[in-house]
Design the sequence.
């Protein structure tokens, strides 16, 4: 999909430049009806927007997706203090701009479809499972204890459009499965050798091999599916293989 680059180079978050390995996606909603992406980008390209240390990885409205931070950089989007732990757990955070009328069905459909495509792209690129708790809203992040107490995006989508994060995740998953099927000509891809494994997963697979958890056929062939690789990576990111 097309992603427009609009990096916030003057924001302290970008200047600090702390790196992370993308491991999840957090969906936000701006709570400022009628203000679109380009306006946010203009006002957030400063050290502390509105006096706050905030920065997201992208803004999205009905005109497109605008990337504001490198996706492998820590963002400041889930809240401060101890509750901001999602920021440091690899979550890519993006804001969906709200229409003046939250019941605007045409606008909702446009941004929802863009968000599904965007999150599917991120999941495929970084091996993120399109399931909870890897793909969550800000409200769900608070419920999980890794974000501040905000209602987005549940104050808008379920109330006005009967659309939930569960439905969103299902659409993301369906899009990924559909695109995988097209790319693979309806056949499951098997990664036999380490060289064939996607770059984002190689450190995990090497760790499993070195610890003796993954032996293959003893000749360097491991017969890994993409679903297996994604599960291994998620488990590695939460530290299951570090014990």
Sequence:
């Amino acid at each position: 999909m097309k992603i427009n680059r609009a990096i916030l180079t003057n924001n302290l978050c970008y200047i600090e430049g702390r790196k992370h390995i993308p491991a999840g996606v957090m969906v936000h909603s701006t709570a400022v009806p009628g203000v679109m992406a380009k306006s946010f980008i203009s006002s957030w390209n400063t050290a502390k927007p509105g006096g706050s240390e905030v920065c997201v990885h992208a803004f999205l409205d009905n005109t497109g997706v605008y990337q504001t931070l490198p996706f492998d950089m820590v963002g400041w989007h889930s809240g401060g203090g101890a509750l901001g732990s999602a920021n440091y757990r690899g979550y890519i955070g993006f804001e969906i701009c709200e229409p003046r009328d939250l019941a605007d069905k045409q606008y909702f459909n446009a941004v929802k479809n863009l968000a599904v495509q965007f999150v599917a792209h991120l999941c495929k690129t970084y091996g993120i499972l399109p399931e909870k708790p890897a793909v969550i809203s800000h409200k769900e992040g608070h419920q999980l204890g890794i974000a501040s107490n905000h209602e987005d995006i549940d104050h808008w989508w379920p109330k006005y459009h009967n659309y939930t994060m569960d439905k969103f995740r299902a659409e993301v998953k369906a899009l990924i499965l559909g695109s995988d099927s097209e790319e693979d000509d309806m056949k499951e891809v098997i990664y036999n050798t380490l060289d064939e494994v996607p770059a984002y997963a190689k450190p995990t697979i090497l760790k499993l091999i070195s610890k003796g958890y993954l032996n293959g056929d003893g000749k360097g062939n491991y017969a890994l599916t993409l679903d297996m690789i994604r599960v291994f990576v998620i488990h590695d990111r939460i530290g299951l293989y570090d014990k």
